[in-house]
Amino acid sequence: MTASPRALITGGAGFIGSHLAERLLREGYKVRVLDNLTTGKTENLAAIAKDVELEVGDVRDQPFVDYAVRDCDVVFHEAAIVSVPYSVEQPQETHDVNLQGTLNVLQSARKRGVKRVVFACSAAVYGEEPTMPKRETMAPAPVAPYGVEKMASELYLGAWSALYGVETVSLRYFNVFGPRQDPKSAYSGVISIFVDRALRGTTPVIFGDGSQYRDFVYVDNVVEANFLAATRPGVSGRAYNVGCGAQTSLNDLLGMIGKAAGTTLTATYQPARAGDIHASLADITRARDELGYVPKVSVEEGLARLVAHVKRERAGAS
Ligand code: UD1
């Protein structure tokens, strides 16, 4: 019998990372989490706390990353500052976390003999170029520091797979949503904010005219893509779109969330945010053909699950 594979998840106490931790445990992995608990929370790991090794520290701290990577076969690098407008305001900080942090992870992976690094990249690498849907063969054209940091990180991954024998896979996440995405900040993902407001009966704000659209993807689909990216042979050095392949405008999203929450949701409108792109839609053909990725949970189903989760959580808290 072979030993259980060991995984490190950076950002593993965060939204996506904590879902990934649960899945990897179910798949028989030994799981270690590196998280600085800035946006990640130990509560996100509550259900699996006894099975997960938690190392509290920062991806900007190279010796600490080195320590956290020890004995691991695979690293899932999810730790990041995820907000596009925040990167417009604080580009040095997001550079240090999002790009230097990735370089630190790659250096440790090389030094410690990690077999594969799977990276949480972003659709933001495509920027405003108007051709839809986005394919991985298109030239990247990020408009905000966040997208630049994610693209530069991905280029580093390519170099690591070509030069140092560390297998790397870059997953270009589109707009991920689901339970544990924190709605509390102005920088939070739009679905988390709108669901929170729908269930509180307060009014959401749309920045712009609401015609901008995104390819929203439920977190379980993203976890599945990560699992495939870690286990499929012959995919090193590749980048894959991870979306649903369906576009939803913010105006349509209001109606869909209203329906899932059993309410009528209307928004107020404010000027568009700096650094925002208008449109984003994935072509997921490459991920399907090479990884076997199929987004099993639709946007509607994901919204229904998220609303049910938030309702349960609030019922439990009161
Ligand atoms: C999101 C992710 C980013 C990811 C990228 C991939 C977050 C916070 N950002 O960026 O990490 O890499 O997708 O495509 O998860 N909006 C409103 N009202 C609000 C909040 C947002 O109208 O209260 C609008 C924004 O102006 C934007 C759209 O909703 O037009 C989506 O914004 P947001 O959820 O922040 O995501 P992205 O910027 O697309």
Describe the structure.
There is one protein chain. This protein is α/β, with parallel strands linked by helices and about 325 residues long. The chain has ten helices and 13 strands. The chain has helices at about 15-25, 60-70, 85-90, 90-110, 145-165, 190-200, 220-230, 250-260, 285-290, 300-315, and strands at about 5-10, 30-35, 50-55, 75, 115-120, 165-175, 175, 205, 215, 215-220, 240, 250, 270. The strands form four sheets. A seven-stranded parallel β-sheet has the order 3-2-1-4-5-6-11, sandwiched between helices. Helix 2 (about 60-70) packs across helix 4 (about 90-110), helix 4 (about 90-110) packs parallel to helix 5 (about 145-165) and helix 6 packs across helix 8 (about 250-260). The longest helix is centred in the N-terminal third of the chain and has 22 residues, at about 90-110. Bound molecules: uridine-diphosphate-N-acetylglucosamine. The site of uridine-diphosphate-N-acetylglucosamine (UD1) has 24 residues, from helix 6 and strand 8.
Q: What is this structure, in a nutshell?
A:
The chain has 318 residues and is α/β, with parallel strands linked by helices. It has helices at residues 15-26, 62-69, 84-89, 91-112, 145-163, 190-200, 219-231, 250-261, 285-291, 299-317; strands spanning 6-10, 30-35, 52-56, 74-77, 116-122, 167-173, 175-177, 205-207, 213-214, 216-218, 238-242, 248-249, 268-270.
Total strand segments: 13
The proportion of residues in beta strands is 15-25%
Provide the structure class: alpha/beta
Shape: globular
What compounds sit in this structure?
uridine-diphosphate-N-acetylglucosamine
Report on the biggest sheet.
7 strands, parallel
Q: Specify the helix fraction band.
A: 40-55%
SSE string, helices as H and strands as E: EHEEHEHHEHEEHEEEHEEHEHH
The count of helical stretches stands at: 10
Distance between the termini: 48 Å
Rg measurement, Å: 19 Å
Low-confidence runs: none
Which whole number gives the mean pLDDT? 97
